[in-house]
Amino acid sequence: MKRILLTPDYEEAVKDLEGRFPSPSHVRKTLTETTEGRTKDGIVRVVLACNVIPIAFHKLAYELWNNVKELPDNRPAAVGSASLPRTMSDGMLSGHKGVPKQTLKVLRKQGTAQGILGYLDATQGQACHRTPLTKRHPEMLEGNERLIKLVDDLYKRYRPEFYERQRVEIEKVPMWRLWQTVFSTIYLARNFRTAYHFDSGNFKGVMTALMPMGTFTGGELVLPRWGLAIGFRPGDVLFFDSTEILHGNLPFQGSRLSAAFYCERDIANCGK
Amino acid sequence: MPSVILENSTNRNPMIFYRKWSWERLAEKGSASEAVTWRARTGDLKLDRHREFADFLEHIFRNPDEVTTIDDHSELDHDDIAAAEWINSHIAKLDAVIVRGIAQRNDAKIEIGRALNEQKKILGHGKFKRHVSEVLGSMISLRTAQRYMRRARKEDAKSKNDKLSFLTSASDDGAKDIKTTTEGARDEVSSRPAVYKLPLRLCSAEGKAVDELRTSPAWPEAQQSIILVLRRFCTNHGIEFGVNKEEA
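^ Those are the sequences you sent over. The predicted structure of the assembly is below.
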């Protein structure tokens, strides 16, 4: 495995970039082979594992997952829009906020959609639950059991220290995990060119596994903190802490689906 | 990354290449100098094993027919796998120590350079040179100090330029579409009235009357009058009531 030092570090400079779209000018270096990136403190921040998912696995996943339909109306930062009050049928503004309707229309035209599989932790007014998409289409999860377990194995192999931390957390609530893995949830994003954002709903201090699928060119994931672009392809998996590291995509051509395997932030409270 | 195991026909102990590319590069080049490079990478092995390993490599380069490549870990001796894994993880740990050390050393030089630059700014050229030779001279020569100062200036200039390049916005069509529609939506929202829930203490009869008023054709006028009353009260108490964009 290639090892690189992530430097220079623009931690302060990138703080204002949330909600803005990545541009090729933000990239100093592109990773395209199996690589481990460490910061000066010696901590591994990014691991790109190339050609680790068999073609049959990611092709099946693409087929089963590509029909997600929800619009990302609850993710203004990732969409790159403001969070604005929704308009009610009488033309008045409601107290609920989200991505404006006009922007959602543009996203629909671009073929953007999202879906969540597995379990979600409790939010205001809603207890921990199995996602509606999983209830409607259990085959989306069950058909990909081997893939999910493989990603879990890769996580354990490449970053055992983070894996262990996540395992301890999720083992508190064995009912709310995907098989015996350390993941509780899979977030699917179809043709979603994201602006810089953090994944605030994920468990902190561990890593998220990101896996692209489909037939596309471009779409590199940019981590502006180090001017780093991840040129990953179907079959590759990226591990990084998406709650701490600002990330977004460059534009792409073709059909692209990406899956984020993670553990919900407060999943351990589901047992209480 | 799968390990590649090499065995020769003389029943020698199997040797494990910990990185596949090392073997590919060795096989490509087929030279003893490459073997020496690889030998240097296994810094944890004892010298006699080094020599033995180098001899072994020399031998297989000269007699490639005796070499078979096995990719299947199940044919490996358990101890060999454990040894290979231990060396891999230990090398990775040492890499981390080295990387951290190098980074800290470079940072330290830049920090020294920055401090010296600041001293020079305060003391002026002549006094600064004297200060370096008299106070710091036993630890750092003037030439080294100047090198560190140059390095700090270069680093600062670089990071300033780099930060500026982040300010450029993405200019592709997708990003522009999202930006334009969001701006449009923001303008629309700012000029659109929202429902404001005004908490009023009313008895039930009064509440019923207000409900009736709200469903009557007189409600728009009543609403305007209520807003005017609120505006007057705000003005009287020095509170700015706010003006709609359209009205402005």
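Chain A touches chain B through 46 residues (CB under 8 Å). The helical segments of chain A are 55-65, 76-79, 101-109, 132-136, 139-142, 145-158, 160-170.

Shout if you want it in another format.
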